[in-house]
């Protein structure tokens, strides 16, 4: 039986932020990156009340024209950008943090399962390329995908999170992808042939004109800014703060200690701050109680759940657990239904030989044009999402979105208007495993 889903609270998060002209420059930061009003802090940021020349002093104003704008450089966004770039699309990747990789690097969940199911590899492509090269460069080992493990976690691939960051940036550079760290969209509006997106970072204002957007924010933040429907239940899964006490962390060889951060919410700067502070307070208590050295601490909470989109197709729990083969399936997914609660988690394995699929239409917000979503915000109910959110299928979604967006930009059409066979053929040419 599928879990019920309810629409998230209707507030400033879901407003459309209109493009702001010169006459309204002083309210340029009226909304945070998630669309939440921060009028009370705007004076500190911009110095409202001073003259216009003073407000923009020391700020770089940049305008760029690209084919594909990827927003969010986490698990899915990094792969989406590399794929779009490799297809010749002029691509910009905007990331609010200081590095790529998201949950695997900043969050520290450096075991991005699962790439195999029932004795064979089912997810490959650019995500697997990055993981494989990270392990090889680190002198690590791989599980034998030909063997079916007794427990799913026995086929996890352990990666060195620090090497992953370096390789991800190298592959972006090789693909011609431009990276903008410490920036996030502040305003967005439609244009005749795509989008105008105003991004803001400290000392930087960037106006991006693009044909296609891929929202890989993890919480469908761009979708929320456009007032397209999103879902989020009242209760969400806890996040995890990863750390190591007692002995040094050995990247690429082990899972490190994890502490639940209940109520962790990644939908705004304020809620992420609250989650990080709460997690660090609890770790400090553990260190004091253990009387051992703190040897490693991740810089941010790893979040499991936020907003999901309402897509042209919704993947349900029944679809997932039955291994439904969607007509427009662009990748496989494989992981137990994995809903974390305050009392812990009891993974529910899939029946033998069941391998779920992900349809392209689940990456397309309902009634939208020229925007795709990849990663844990995929259109799905809560139980299906608890399995789809893990890194390997998110990588596969990112690659599919990168192909669809690049081809749509080249053909001056929308992603769903691109030939599905051409999308699949292109994915296979870039080493992805595609159903059918």
Question: What does it look like?
Answer:
It is a single chain. The chain has 436 residues and is of the alpha/beta class. Among the domains are: 69-90 and 101-173 and 308-429, no CATH class; 239-297, no CATH class. It is 28% helix and 20% strand. It has helices spanning 39-46, 52-55, 75-86, 125-137, 161-174, 221-225, 269-290, 317-322, 382-388, 391-411, 420-429, and strands at 60-71, 91-95, 116-117, 120-121, 178-181, 184-191, 194-201, 204-215, 230-231, 239-245, 257-261, 294-297, 308-309, 329-332, 340-341, 344-345, 357-359, 371-373. The strands form six sheets. Strands 1, 2, 5, 6, 7, 8 and 18 form a seven-stranded mixed beta sheet that branches. A three-stranded antiparallel beta sheet has the order 11-10-12, with helices on one face. Helix 3 runs parallel beside helix 5, helix 3 (75-86) packs parallel to helix 10 (391-411) and helix 4 (125-137) crosses helix 5. 50% of the residues are buried.
- The beta-strand count equals 18
Molecular shape:
globular
Helix content: 25-40%
Mean pLDDT across the residues is 88
What class would the helix/strand composition place it in?
alpha/beta
Name the helix and strand elements from N-terminus to C-terminus, one letter apiece: HHEHEEEHHEEEEHEEEHEEHEEEEEHHH
- Beta-strand content estimate: 15-25%
Radius of gyration: 21 Å
Number of helices: 11
> Uncertain segments of ≥5 residues (pLDDT<50)?
1-56
Measure the end-to-end span.
Answer: 28 Å
The largest sheet is: 7 strands, mixed
Assembly level: single chain
């Amino acid at each position: 039986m599928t879990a019920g889903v309810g629409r998230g609270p209707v507030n400033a998060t879901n407003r459309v932020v209109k493009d702001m002209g010169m006459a309204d420059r002083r309210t340029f930061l009226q909304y945070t990156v998630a669309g939440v009003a921060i009028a009370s802090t705007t004076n500190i940021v911009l110095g409202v009340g001073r003259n216009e020349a003073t407000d923009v002093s020391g700020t770089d104003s940049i305008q760029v024209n690209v084919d594909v704008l990827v927003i969010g450089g986490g698990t899915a966004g990094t792969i989406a950008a590399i794929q779009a770039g490799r297809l010749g699309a002029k691509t910009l990747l905007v990331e609010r943090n200081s590095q790529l990789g998201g949950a695997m690097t900043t969050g520290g969940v450096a075991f991005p399962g699962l790439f195999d199911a029932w004795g064979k590899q089912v997810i490959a492509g650019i995500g697997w390329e990055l993981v494989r090269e990270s392990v090889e460069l680190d002198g690590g080992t791989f599980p034998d995908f030909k063997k079916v493990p007794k427990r799913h976690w026995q086929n996890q691939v352990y990666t060195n999170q620090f090497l992953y960051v370096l390789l991800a940036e190298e592959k972006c550079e090789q693909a011609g992808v431009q990276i903008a760290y410490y920036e996030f969209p502040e305003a967005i509006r439609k244009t005749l042939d795509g989008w105008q997106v105003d991004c803001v970072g400290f000392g930087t204002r960037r106006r991006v004109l693009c044909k296609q957007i891929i929202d890989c924010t993890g919480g469908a933040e761009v979708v929320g800014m456009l007032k397209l429907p999103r879902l989020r239940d009242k209760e969400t899964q806890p996040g995890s703060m990863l750390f190591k006490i007692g002995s040094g962390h050995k990247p690429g060889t082990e899972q490190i200690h994890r502490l639940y951060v209940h109520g962790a919410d990644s939908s705004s700067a304020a809620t992420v701050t609250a989650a990080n502070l709460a997690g660090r307070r609890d770790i400090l208590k553990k260190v004091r109680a253990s009387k051992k050295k703190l040897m490693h601490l991740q810089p941010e909470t790893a979040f499991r759940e936020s907003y999901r989109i309402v897509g042209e197709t919704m993947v349900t729990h029944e679809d997932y657990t039955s291994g439904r083969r969607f007509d427009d399936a662009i990748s496989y997914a494989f992981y137990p239904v994995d809903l974390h609660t305050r009392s812990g988690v009891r993974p529910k394995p899939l029946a033998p030989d069941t391998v779920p699929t992900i349809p392209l239409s689940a990456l397309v917000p309902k009634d939208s044009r020229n925007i795709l979503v990849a990663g844990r915000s995929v259109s799905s109910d809560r139980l299906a999402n608890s399995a789809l959110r893990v890194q390997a299928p998110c990588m596969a979604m990112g690659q599919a979105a990168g192909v669809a967006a690049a081809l749509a930009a080249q053909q001056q059409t929308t992603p769903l208007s691109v030939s599905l066979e051409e999308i699949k053929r292109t994915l296979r040419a870039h080493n992805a495993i595609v159903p059918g």
